[in-house]
């Protein structure tokens, strides 16, 4: 192998039923299943080029050298894909990796999800392997749990899995992107980097929060409720269980020691505004991840009213509207 190159495109996803906590740190196995929407608007494009003339990995995120820990995480992921694909522990050739997001990185907008999904496919292809979607999902999960879901488009379920080796901890598609015309409006309240990563926030919650066992105990039932509501296109039930899951996740984090607080004043104001809209009869609900942005989920007909309302919330700096997007794919050369 002298120089082999591939480019892949993946979208971020937003979990309606959250992943928060791990059953195995090393294999990055989730302690709960999760259910998500893949978003068409938030896109990562990643090129990987293995080159036997390089003497170290050259990694750039949005045209800049990332910090050491981000670069190490990417190099470790390249090792993992190489070992899996080539069934060897030999030293791999070094690579050039260029990745671009069209949205704020590391601000609770799930850049690791689209990032590792795109990196899994581009790396596999650059190594001339053709990996099945399930294998890609398993590899992406090792990079970041939520990335396992971005392999697929539309509405996606990530399995908790039972096996110790994690072979059944993979995502599957529940519905194609055009199954239900849902929109996700992201109210950006702070575009800076997040203060506590999801990995650290969930570790602290697992280790210290008295509410963590209750969070785990209810997770599977929430997935089933959401899956059934989606099958029936019952927005109201989906809205209730979506808010239930995110508020329980954040409650468990808030009760850690020290408490993990991802919300700012604008996040809370946006959640109240969304509740007011729903009380007035609009099909909309909220969800939040490990950052201060609020994501409103609504049926397409409600989009403009929800956008207008969110734009008026004090502290909301920008509203990004997304539909449901496709799974990871190669970009033609
Ligand atoms: C709150 O996938 O970022 O967004 O596996 O440690 O990389 P790691 O965590 P990550 O966690 C996502 C947590 C969440 C909820 C979700 O997306 O399900």
Structure, described:
This protein has 333 residues and is of the alpha+beta class. The protein has 2 domains: 3-179, Ribosomal Protein S5, domain 2; 182-322, Alpha-Beta Plaits (2-Layer Sandwich), CATH 3.30.70.890. Helices cover 38% and strands 25% of the residues. The chain has 9 helices and 13 strands. Strands 1, 4, 5, 6, 7, 8 and 13 form a 7-stranded mixed beta sheet that branches. A 4-stranded antiparallel beta sheet has the order 10-11-9-12. Strands 2-3 form a two-stranded antiparallel sheet. Helix 2 (111-126) packs across helix 3 and helix 6 runs antiparallel to helix 7. The chain is globular, with a radius of gyration of 19 Å. The relative contact order is 0.19. The mean pLDDT is 94. The structure holds ligand DP6. Ligand DP6 is lined by residues 15, 18-20, 28, 34, 112, 144-146, 198-199, 289-290.
How are the secondary structure elements laid out?
Layout: E1 3-17, E2 22-24, E3 29-30, E4 34-51, E5 58-61, H1 68-86, E6 95-101, H2 111-126, H3 133-143, H4 147-150, E7 155-158, E8 171-175, E9 182-188, H5 198-208, H6 212-231, H7 235-254, H8 265-279, E10 284-287, E11 294-299, H9 303-311, E12 318-322, E13 329-330
Parallel strand pairs: 5-6
Antiparallel strand pairs: 1-4, 1-13, 2-3, 4-6, 4-7, 7-8, 9-11, 9-12, 10-11
Helix pairs in contact: 1-2, 2-3, 6-7
Ligand DP6 binds at residues 15, 18-20, 28, 34, 112, 144-146, 198-199, 289-290.
């Amino acid at each position: 192998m002298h120089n082999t190159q591939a480019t892949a495109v993946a979208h971020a996803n937003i979990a309606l039923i959250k992943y928060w906590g791990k059953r195995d740190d090393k294999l990055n196995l989730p302690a709960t299943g999760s259910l998500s929407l893949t978003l068409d608007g938030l896109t990562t494009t990643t090129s990987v080029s293995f080159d036997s003339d390089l003497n170290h990995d050259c990694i750039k995120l949005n045209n800049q050298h990332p910090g050491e820990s981000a670069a190490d995480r990417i190099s470790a992921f390249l090792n993992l894909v190489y070992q899996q694909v080539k069934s060897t522990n030999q030293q791999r050739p070094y690579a050039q990796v260029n990745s671009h997001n069209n949205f704020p990185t590391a601000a609770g907008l799930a850049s690791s999800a689209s990032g590792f999904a795109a990196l899994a496919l581009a790396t596999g292809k650059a190594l001339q392997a053709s990996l099945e979607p399930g294998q890609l999902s398993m590899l992406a999960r090792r990079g970041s749990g939520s990335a396992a879901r971005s392999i697929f488009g539309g509405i996606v379920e990530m399995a908790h899995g039972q096996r110790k080796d994690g072979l059944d901890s993979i995502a599957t598609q529940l519905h194609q992107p055009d199954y239900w015309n849902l929109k996700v409006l992201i109210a950006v309240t702070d575009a800076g980097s997040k203060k506590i990563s999801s990995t650290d926030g969930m570790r602290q919650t697992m280790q210290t929060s008295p509410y963590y066992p209750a969070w785990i105990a209810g997770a599977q039932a929430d997935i089933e409720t959401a899956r059934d509501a989606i099958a029936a296109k019952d927005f109201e039930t989906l809205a209730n269980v979506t808010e239930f899951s995110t508020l329980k996740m954040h409650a468990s984090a808030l009760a850690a020691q020290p408490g993990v607080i991802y919300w700012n004043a604008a996040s809370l104001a946006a959640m109240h505004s969304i509740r007011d809209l729903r009380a007035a009869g609009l099909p909309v609900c909220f969800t939040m991840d490990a950052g201060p942005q609020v994501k409103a989920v609504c049926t397409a007909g409600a989009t403009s009213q929800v956008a207008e309302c969110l734009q008026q919330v004090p502290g909301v700096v920008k509203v990004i509207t997304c539909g449901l997007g496709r799974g990871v794919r190669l970009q033609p050369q």
